[in-house]
Amino acid sequence: MNTKSYFFQSFAIVALAFVAFIGFKQILPDKIFSDSKIDSKNVLIDSLLLESVAKDSLSLKSDSIEESERRLGQQKIVYDASEGIEFPSETFDNYKGYQYLISFYEKLYQLEQNPQRHVRIAYYGDSMTDGDLIVQDVRNNYQDRFGGNGVGFVSITSESAASRGSVKATYSKNWKTQSYLNVKRPASPFGVNGHVFFANDQTNPTWVQYEAGLPKHTTTLDNPTLFYGRSSKRGNVNFIIGKDTLKKSLSPNNLVNTLKVTSGSIKAFKANFIHADSIPIYGFNFDNGIGVHVDNFSQRGNSGLPISMFDASVMQAFDNNLKYDLIVLHYGTNVLNYGTKNYFWYEKGMTKTVNKIKESFPGVSILIVSTADKSTKYDLEMKTDSAVVPLMKAQKKYALETESGFVNLYTLMGGDGSMVKWVDESPAKANKDYTHFNQRGARAIGNLLYSQLNNGYEQYKILRQKRETGVRPKAIRKPKADSVSVEKDSVNE
């Protein structure tokens, strides 16, 4: 056979193989192929997640896991009264953990009695909350009811800055950024947002500019305040507000330092950093000091595990300034699809994360938000991914283990097959990747989250009133053999 004929024969074989592959793809089963179209640009997966997956132990058989979870689902959770308040018992299946949000609810109650008080929420999440999606709607609901103006804490740079409507941020391209997503030993400790920034270009200007957003409650930049860290060298920053320039010095003496740009409300400003290359910069806070404020600390690709690397002393310094009452952990999107339905490794890792939060923000209430529904193609049909429910149950387990509140976002949006409905209905509420919500869906999710939290608050007020009027809650019961007894420390009001 000559070379020319051999080439054509080889080409024909390859062509036939390609045609056969296309044909067989349509009938191959399960989740070998997915119709989800995911834009990989700027998508990161945190290093701790990859390490945890690599070390994942598959020692438990799937049938033993299922039997253990079946027994757990019907177990009764009986709460001990805290400050005379005891929420009704729950089963694991319907667990919400309002009992563990009592300190947060008391702060809301005090704010409702005195509108000059202040309540603050830190909302940590992944790409689900990118661009302030979901969080801006939770914030809006709280500020509608309890007052408060301002978008909260905003990082120097962000992947979603261009798409965020609640505040507009532009910045020079010469910022050096370190993220807890992929840096284990930063040059300076990470800030409360999981990042640290350096204006390390001495040749070209390093700047950031903010403009107020369009949604109500965020139409001004209230009391803009810079947060920065410790350094052996001082620096300067020039704030340009309209036609005025305010020249101020940076004195990085403490773990966390603040510098107020100006008092009151402005529409926009620009900050030029000068000879500040060694000073860790964290971001700016915007709030009017009263009502509710919600900070969005979203990070694409995050599993939640990197929070365990926080420096507790630095976080306490942030907390001394910002004074958090509730911390929300909303993760799951990046934990699915790693070839296992045994998420014990994630339970263990996130338990460590929650414990670090408790160390970093003493007395704060914690809320775990589970994975939403996600669909994958099985036998030519989009269905709920088989890993969704096991992950949701794992998240519920570490919420209970760490005495945190819990929102089952999977069931809240409709349970099995709900993501397909959210994508296919008109108008759609989710994207064609069958994973992420669009703005309409994010608004619906934000409202659902707020509704569950508010339901717990309304129950709390009823229990509180019974306590104040002398109608005592039922006596603490001795748990049955199949019950989970939960002891509580007293809550300071």
Q: What is the CA-based Rg, rounded?
A: 25 Å
What is the assembly state of the chains in this entry? single chain
Mean pLDDT: 86
Low-pLDDT stretches are 14-44, 473-493
The helical percent reads 25-40%
Proportion of strand residues: 15-25%
- Shape call: globular
Structural class: alpha+beta
First-to-last CA distance: 91 Å
How would a textbook summarize the main sheet?
A: 5 strands, parallel
Q: How many β-strands, per DSSP?
A: 23
Walk across the major sheet and give the strand order.
17-3-18-19-22
What is the number of helical segments per DSSP (H or I, 4+ residues)?
A: 11
Give a structural overview.
- The protein has 493 residues and is an alpha+beta fold.
- 30% of the residues lie in helices and 23% in strands.
- The chain has helices at 3-25, 47-54, 62-73, 102-113, 135-146, 312-322, 344-360, 388-401, 409-412, 418-424, 439-468; strands at 76-79, 90-91, 118-125, 152-155, 167-171, 176-179, 195-198, 206-212, 221-222, 225-229, 235-241, 244-250, 256-260, 265-266, 268-274, 281-286, 291-298, 326-330, 365-369, 375-378, 381-384, 405-407, 483-486.
- A 5-stranded parallel beta sheet has the order 17-3-18-19-22, sandwiched between helices.
- Strand 11 (235-241) and strand 12 form a beta hairpin.
- Helix 4 packs across helix 11.
- The longest helix has 30 residues, at 439-468.
- Mean pLDDT is 86; it is low at 14-44 and 473-493.
Notable traits:
hydrolase activity; 11 helices; 493 residues; transmembrane helix; alpha+beta; five-stranded antiparallel beta sheet; SGNH_hydro_sf; membrane
